[in-house]
Amino acid sequence: MPRTKDTPRTNLILSVSFLILCSGLVVLALIFFPIAQQELRYYAQHTRTTNSATQEIAPVDEEFGIVVPKNCC
């Protein structure tokens, strides 16, 4: 199959499509990078702190024994 000659129109279409693709990737990075950065910072801060002390749970009423513990922090 013979190769066709590149015309200025073909070069323009390829250049514009490449520009649109690159600008889309830049926009995605600008949108999601701050969110990902905050998520990673939150994850890093909360994995370092651990609550190893457990608190004894006592029901308020001895006749009614259902106690649902709350997860603190």
Give an account of the 3D structure.
The structure is a single chain. The chain has 73 residues and is mostly helical. Helices cover 56% and strands 0% of the residues. It is built from 1 helix and no strands. It has one helix spanning 8-48. The longest helix is centred in the middle third of the chain and has 41 residues, at 8-48. The N and C termini lie far apart (68 Å). The mean pLDDT is 83.
Largest sheet: none
| Helix content bin | 55-70%
What is the number of beta strands? 0
- Overall 3D shape: rod-shaped
Radius of gyration: 29 Å
Unreliable sequence segments = none
Q: So how many helices? A: 1
User: Approximately what portion of the residues adopt beta-strand conformation?
Assistant: under 5%
Question: What labels would you give this structure?
Answer:
73 residues, mainly alpha, rod-shaped
Describe this structure in a few short sentences.
This protein is mainly α and about 70 residues long. The protein has one helix and no strands. The protein has a domain at about 10-50.
Please describe the topology of this protein:
Layout: H1 8-48
